[in-house]
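ARCHIVE RECORD
Type: protein–small molecule complex
Small molecule: zinc ion
Source of inputs: curated submission
Record status: active
Notes field left blank by submitter.
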Amino acid sequence: MKDFLNELDNELNWVENKTWDTNWNNSWEVKKEDINNSIKKEEKQQVETKKKQVSKKTNRNNQNKKRYDDSNNVMWKFVSRFPETKFYLPNLREGYTRYVPIWWNDETWAKNMGMVQYWDDIVLIDCGLQFASWNDMLWANYSIPDVSFLWKYKNNIKGFVVTHAHLDHIWALKHILPAIGMPTLYATKLTIGIIKKWLEEAGILSKMTLIEIDADDTTPIKIWAFDIEFFRVNHSVPDSAWLYIKSPGWVTFMHTWDFKIDLTPRIDKPADLARIWAFGEKGVTMLLSDSTWSIRKGHSKSEEEVWNALDEIVQKHTRWRLIVATFSSWISRVQQLIDSAERYDKTIFLSGRSMLENIAIAKELGYIKMKPGVVKKMTPKNTEWIPPHKQIIITTGSQWEEFSALSRMAEWRHNAVEILKGDTIIFSSSVVPWNEKSVVTIINKLIKLGATVITKDDWEFHTWGHAFQDEQKMMIKLAKPKYLMPIYWDLYFRHIHKQTAMSIWIKQENILLIDNGNIVDFAPKTWNVFKSRIKIPLKQIIIDWYGIWIADSHVIKAREKMMNAWVLVINYKVDKKTKAILWHLKVETRWLAHLEEVRYIHRMIIKKAKESYENTIKDVPDIEEKDLLKIIRTDLEQLILKRTDREPMIIPMITEV
Ligand SMILES: [Zn+2]
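STRUCTURE (tokenized, with ligand):
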């Protein structure tokens, strides 16, 4: 991976050695001038001032980012802060096989994690994050599954199997693996490649055993009691796999997690339908299947259709720059653009650390192919040397950064690209639902600057990574399971998945809609199902700059209080010897909104604060500062309570000069 990143760095040398092509250089200058003139002078000045302001802000953000990176390395040490729990898993009857959804329900982009158990042996499946929601995770970065109950079963955890490389399936590994004794992890080649990067950053890679699985290999892996087979599916990140898990009790789970069926994918082979049918013939006790797009009828669009649409626009786009915003894990989308760039003699510029790293891993492992020189790292220097109509800029972040780089481009505070009139921007990814408003804000800015904006709604540049109803049906028909457990997302989507399944012969009583932490046991041979009355008590665990917390703990409560807090700070500047007030008192309040109200109340506070200070000093000249502050605080509290019916936190401060 490092070789490829160095190779991209060397592209800078390529820029140094490049000779000018005067023809296009002139046209570039002229065009740039035209564009610049078209932006009103006034507007430009405003932007310049804004740029200065935001560059200060960016520096500050960079410092914060550094703090975050540093804290990332030590975060795994905080794992011991998972809440203590006295919970014990109920006894598993002899020969029975258990499935527990540790977490994946009732959340968007959930922190997915599941568990199978036979006798004492436990195997865990996936381990992701959930993007922080503002309401119940104040100031958090993200949340992770609560594995407190697993501590005491550390020695029983025989392995971790991972289906694909999305953050909502792998990110929490670095927090949770150390807490549960670093069990051996199994996944396909690309998934292992990406997991390795995160574990290395967290400083725990050397403690892990990672085993690479070929999803085409039909030999089951033996993880203690379980025989597990990985097999090919399609999704929005290459090398995604499903699992066929067999226990000695002859109970079998087909665990799909995120999937779609694409007969013409870009990087992967099509989903292995023949093998799914073969598993169906052998017998599937329960199919756990993706409900994300259960409301959509028909079959999801193939990557090939998207490629055709993208290829056409790359070919036709001969006037100005083409900028594509997508997720860094959507590696097939990048491959599609590389292919088109090679075909029409254009250059790809990659922006964003996560994108560069993911592409480097995919290239090293042979998932992505490119001719030398077609892909370059985006820097202010090397974009200048390519005519705009020959540039394809791929801007991205990880799933949670979303369109932050594009937003910086639109606000002219990106170090390499400023959006100009004539640019075309394609949004080629779906948006986390609660971010839709912020994406519209970016689109507004782009339109104002004169750019053409194409979103997933008005062109064919995007497909989803999840199955529609026809694919869900196909899966049920091929696997022929006794039970179906619709997984992922809110009950609403799982309920519709249930209806789809009932429309094709699955009995209502055989469809299990269950909650996070429910325990479901299956009898050997008969496959009778038993849902335990006991539920694992799971807490909302959040991660912020400082470590791991429970979302309903005192930390969140304190944060909530601070958000609603009313604060008054009053600053006295006084003479060291005479103690006389030297200058007007300074007051800051945080609970008043209307300007008139602020003025009126501030005047009142200053008058009272002055009186209180001067009278006390007069009465007790050698009073200790802490006592003096106490008196001022009490006087002001009484006044504010009487006049405004509020009880803010009051902080008087005395500076002697
Ligand atoms: Zn996924």
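CURATOR ANNOTATION: Residues 164, 166, 235, 258, 465 surround zinc ion (CB under 6 Å).
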